[in-house]
Design a protein that fits this description.
alpha+beta; 2 domains; 5 helices; 55% helix; flat
Length: 110
Amino acid sequence: MTRILALLLSTFVSMGFAAPKALAAGLPVITSATVDYTHNTVTITGQNFDTKTLAFTTEADKFRNYASAWRDRWNSVMELFMAGGNYAVSQVPFPAGFPQAAQAEIAAAR
């Protein structure tokens, strides 16, 4: 799946897919994408990735922390299981305001 995503992203980047019109419309434009298979990450660079609302910026930071905590928990499951340990309840709650902030961001981008 990651390889397909990387192929699609690189195809759009190399073709300059609608970049002039997208920039003129204030839409995000991807200028490069890099896949790091070692760390399972995709780095995307471009223009117009700015957020429109402060609420989304704040809630996105909370969501990033939430996702990182669950990623770290998932990556340590096997090690903990093999050691005979048990997982404690997660201390990072899902950011309750994220869905509303995402909807507001989408509305502001239109």
